[in-house]
Each structure stands twice: as structure tokens, then as C-alpha cells.
Specification:
With 407 residues, this protein is mainly β. The protein contains 1 helix and 35 strands. It is rod-shaped, with a radius of gyration of 51 Å.
């Protein structure tokens, strides 16, 4: 014998509604539990969230008017029926409702952010859509559509370049489109400007003393990174303390003018170079103001012309001051070069000076004075020879006399 449900028994309700709706539409979702119970509390849920609830007398269905204002209103809907007595509440099966919407609100995110990368690093771009169903994605680089390639990986809303190079610098955009109500909607994200750089190399540091006054001199420091994408910010330090900074925009060299006091040795200076990555430092530069004079040939040969060289350990573009101390007269001469030629007859003492620092002395004897030691030596040799000759004569005479006496 077939068993029929108890007319008073609460059954699982059935649910009816659309499987897709347009955004901002209002649709009806109905629930009904076949029972003889006079009054049933129907509750409508989206996932686990209660949307609406109402009391309905059977056998009428509970009709819920639901507005779909955003895509978050999509999901699985189900009904619960509760008779309010000891009978356990019953649930319907779920229906999935999709919310159709035109594309709206497209943005892109980058990793890293901001998108400033060094060569050979990884770039990831993601395209996010605030609203839009069944969307398609297209990527553009400098207004030209990008297609997947071995170096550029595109998977709908994501773009990945594992090893960027300088050619990847530029503007990236994401274009999203979809169909809605028989119309095509398209929207493009704001451009993401990606910059690929070569990190700055360790800078080279040099110094030039440009001009002087009574109490101090001005030193121009040059910092140059041979590699690295411009602009590069150079920072000068003296004994680890910040002195000044310079941004090299169109040329690699950064120049900083620093006043320093007169001293045999200045402090240690270093340059730091930064262009968005790990800072790089130069070797320490210790400026020694000592002046050294040398001659060519060394030592000078009396009676012959020679060349004097005046040198410093730093870059110096002149002037060089030459000091000549001759018997009975003194003179000075300025040159832009660090060499000067001296005639054979110009005997005396010589030294040079740079930036108020004096070099060592070089003394050039006159040609006559240079022969004096030779004359003395010759005289001594002649005297010795004369003594030896006289001694030999005396010996011979004595020897003859001895033989005569014997015979």
C-alpha cells in the first residue's frame, strides 16, 4: 500500500526564480511548502545571509520581491519554511542567480609598486574590474596591443614579464569589454607607467681646486657613475658627514663646489650615487696639497738644458708659480702648465708653489763651480805624480853611488 504524506506534515519548500537578472532589476522569487498548516514563516537566504522573511497562509506561496543592485547580489538562493510548532524547519534546494552588468571601473595594480624596476627583474600587472559580467581583457603597451609571447605572459586579467629590459619601459593599459542588453561596453584603465632602469655603478670621485681667496679655497668635486639610468643623485660626504647633493639629469657627471680651509691635507671625501636602487659609494679621496718638484734629467747635468716638473696629487689646471733664486737676483714666473724648460746658463736654486704650498728645492750649480772639484783633483794628482818622480830619481842616484863604492 502506498504511503501518502501526512496532510499536516511540513514538507521541504520549492523555490522558483530567474537564473540571471540585469543589474538594478527587481525580480520575484517564490517559495511554497505543500501542507495543510494554516500559517508558515518563509525565510529567503542568499548563501547564509537572510534577505527577507514573511508569514504566509497556505496553500499560498511566499513571493519575495528582490532588487539586484550590484553583482554581489548574485549567488545561491534558498528558502526555509517553519510552521512554528514542534515540526522541524525545512529548506528548499538552492537556485543560482547571476547578475548581468555592463563593465565599469577598471584599474591596474603592479608588483612591485611603484613600478620602477632594475633590468632582469620581474614585473606583474593585474587588471581589476569593479563591475561587469562575462568580460574580456586586452593589454596595451604604448597604445599598441600586446599579445602573448615567450617574454610576455598574458592570462586574461594578468600580465607577467619575468625578465624586464630597457625596452619594457613605457605605458601599460588594460581594456575590458562585455555585452549587455545587446550593446557592447568598453572601458580602459588609467595608464601605468613602468620604468626599467640600469642601477647606478660605483661612482668615481675626483677634485679640482678652482679658485682661492685669502682664507679658503674652493674645490670642485666630480662624481661620475659610468653605468646607470639617469637621473642619478650624487651626494658628497666629508668624513661621513653630509656636505651637498646634486641631481644629474642629462649628463652623467655631478659637480659640487665646496669651500675648504688651507691645509697640507684635507679630509676624506666620498660620493654616493642613487637612481632608485641600492646606493653605491666611491672610494675615499684624501686630497694632499703637498707639491713635489722633479727634474729631467735627474739630477740636472751642469752646462746642459733641463726641464723642471711641478706636480700635485689632485687635478690642477693652473697656475703654477716658479721661483728662481740666482746669485744676485731672484725672480718668479707663472705658467698654466706644470713644466718649464731651463737654459744651461741658468744656475741657482729652483722651487715651485701651488695653492700657497711650496715644493722641495732643486739646486743647479754653475758650469765654473762644477769644474772646480775636477781642477782640484787634477792638481792633487799632478802633485802626487811629481813626488813619485822625484822619489824615483833619488832612488836611481843612490843605487848608482852604492855600486860605485862597492867596485
Amino acid at each position: 500500500m502506498d504511503k501518502y504524506p501526512d496532510p499536516g506534515q511540513l514538507l521541504n519548500p520549492t523555490i522558483h526564480g530567474p537564473d540571471r537578472v540585469n543589474i538594478n532589476d527587481t525580480e520575484t522569487i517564490s517559495c511554497n511548502a505543500s501542507t495543510e498548516t494554516r500559517l508558515i514563516m518563509y525565510s529567503l537566504f542568499r548563501e547564509t545571509t537572510l534577505i527577507q522573511a514573511k508569514n504566509v497562509s497556505t496553500p499560498n506561496a511566499a513571493n519575495f520581491s528582490v532588487s539586484f543592485h550590484s553583482e554581489s547580489d548574485a549567488g545561491a538562493y534558498k528558502c526555509k519554511a517553519d510552521s512554528g510548532d514542534v515540526t522541524r524547519a525545512k529548506y528548499s534546494e538552492s537556485i543560482n542567480i547571476a547578475v548581468l552588468a555592463p563593465v565599469l571601473g577598471v584599474t591596474t595594480n603592479s608588483t612591485p609598486y611603484p613600478p620602477v624596476l632594475k633590468v632582469q627583474s620581474k614585473l606583474s600587472l593585474s587588471c581589476f574590474v569593479k563591475q561587469g559580467s562575462n568580460v574580456t581583457f586586452q593589454w596595451y603597451f604604448d597604445k599598441q596591443q600586446l599579445l602573448p609571447s615567450p617574454s610576455v605572459k598574458i592570462n586574461q586579467s594578468s600580465l607577467v614579464i619575468d625578465h624586464v629590459n630597457l625596452n619594457n619601459t613605457g605605458s601599460y593599459e588594460c581594456k575590458v569589454s562585455n555585452q549587455f542588453n545587446m550593446k557592447t561596453f568598453r572601458i580602459t584603465s588609467n595608464p601605468t607607467q613602468v620604468t626599467v632602469k640600469v642601477p647606478a655603478s660605483h661612482p668615481e670621485i675626483s677634485a679640482t681646486i678652482t679658485h682661492m681667496d685669502k682664507e679658503q679655497m674652493f674645490t670642485s668635486f666630480s662624481c661620475v657613475s659610468r653605468e646607470g639610468t639617469l637621473p642619478i643623485i650624487y651626494t658628497l660626504y666629508r668624513n661621513g658627514t653630509f656636505v651637498n647633493s646634486y641631481t644629474a639629469q642629462s649628463r652623467r657627471e655631478g659637480q659640487l663646489l665646496v669651500p675648504v680651509k688651507y691645509s697640507d691635507k684635507l679630509d676624506n671625501f666620498k660620493c654616493k650615487a642613487v637612481n632608485g636602487f641600492q646606493p653605491k659609494y666611491s672610494n675615499a679621496l684624501a686630497i694632499d696639497l703637498a707639491v713635489q718638484m722633479t727634474s729631467d734629467p735627474d739630477p740636472p747635468i751642469p752646462g746642459h738644458p733641463f726641464t723642471l716638473n711641478c706636480s700635485v696629487s689632485y687635478e690642477h689646471k693652473g697656475p703654477y708659480t716658479w721661483h728662481f733664486v740666482h746669485p744676485g737676483k731672484n725672480s718668479t714666473q707663472n705658467t698654466n702648465g706644470n713644466q718649464i724648460s731651463v737654459a744651461a746658463t741658468d744656475a741657482g736654486r729652483y722651487y715651485c708653489s701651488v695653492n700657497k704650498q711650496i715644493s722641495n728645492w732643486i739646486e743647479i750649480p754653475s758650469q765654473d763651480s762644477s769644474l772646480q772639484p775636477v781642477t782640484i783633483a787634477v792638481s792633487i794628482a799632478a802633485t802626487v805624480l811629481l813626488i813619485l818622480t822625484i822619489g824615483l830619481i833619488c832612488y836611481c842616484v843612490a843605487n848608482k853611488a852604492h855600486r860605485f863604492n862597492v867596485s
